[in-house]
Write a structure and sequence with these properties.
With about 425 residues, the protein is mainly alpha-helical. It has one domain: Amino acid/polyamine transporter I (Up-down Bundle). It is about 75% helix and about 0% strand. It is built from 17 helices and 2 strands. The protein has a two-stranded antiparallel ribbon. A hairpin with a 2-residue loop joins strand 1 and strand 2. Helix 8 packs across helix 16. The protein is globular and about 65 Å long. The relative contact order is 0.20. The model has no long low-confidence stretch (mean pLDDT about 85). InterPro entries: AA/rel_permease1, APC_superfamily. Its main location: membrane. It comes from Maribacter aquivivus.
Length: about 425
Amino acid sequence: MDKKIGLKDAISIGIGGMVGGGIFAVLGLAVALAKGATPLAFLWAGIIAMLTAYSYAKLSKKYPENGGTVRFIHQQFGTGIFAGGINNLLWVSYIVMLALYASAFGSYATELISLSGSKEIDTRIFQTSILLIALFINYLSVKLVSEIESVAVIIKLFILIAFIGVGFYGLSLHPENLHQLSPENWESPILILSGGMVIFVAYEGFELIANSVSDLKDREKNTEKAYFGAVGFVIVLYILIAIVTVGALPFQQIANAEDYVLAKAAEPTLGQIGFTIITITALISTFSAINATVLGSGRVNYDIAEDDELPKYFCHMFWGKPVGFLITAMLSVALVNLFNLKSISTAGSAGFLLIFCIVNYIGYKKHKELDSKSYVHLLASILCLLAFITLIIQQFSENKVGVLTALGIIVFCFILEIVYKATKPKVV
């Protein structure tokens, strides 16, 4: 039986990985930082994602086996402390993403359903419950996770494109609202760049394509098309969503509804029914993203342990699946209940920018083997590093907890690897 996937399938995997919970979680944060220049912030983040996709495409074509980022790092750095620390950071960054998606789910769910009368308590109940439900589904059936994701991708793309169409119709009726997008309402360049970096997590999902390249038809011809097609589509989608959102609501209303701003942006044209439709879409999207990320992070965790960069305990089975699934979900529950959305987003973006900086560097070092342009890899690596530094410096003044969390996670991942390598029994 032919198990090969086509170009459209590979592009769908990338789009599904990116347009998950990220846009619903971080759009409000981007507007808070960049104001009228929010579309530029998304473009800036998208340019870095597109350049990094070039490195991923070339590396995926050369090393098409499953494992993606983990395998690329091993190809360059072996299985020492540095490689182990970076791979641990990849796993922990997935945990951060789970917390981000769960936070978005909780924020949108409380706008639809009241359980206790307290939004804070309801949010905690929803964001914790959805992680536990997703964990149960992953243990129940991986096939079910795939089916949920397939249906969710169609629903969320259809409704988001409809949202854009309705939004532009609303702007055509009230063209004066476009004033909010004019340069006089832009924040300073450093805040625009920082806004793009805080929301960079909304793009990171394209790396999931790496896990499917081994099954891609006409791999030589289609690998780059899959990456560039997915990232290019999502850049345009995000910029249009940002234009509609900034044009639909005054900045103060966006700030007041920061955690569920996409639903609020549907209200001016469609009223309460628009708010409800987008809220339900957000719940479906974040739920499917949580499901897929529990699966992906559990597998990454297992791969890292198999490569002897984490204790073999993580390869143990619990209820027929790696115990890493359970550990990942429990750590996400802790994270989402200890930190706010902005801190989680900063930590997630910082982790992936550093990982992508290193993957781009690997592309640069291996450009002859990859038959690729060294300057593209180098430019992408430098931009990721500069973006990481910009994010840390700018956020430190107003979001110390997020920055310290991000830096703490990075240091912890390397300390974990150093301790593990120092204490594991020596093979005689």
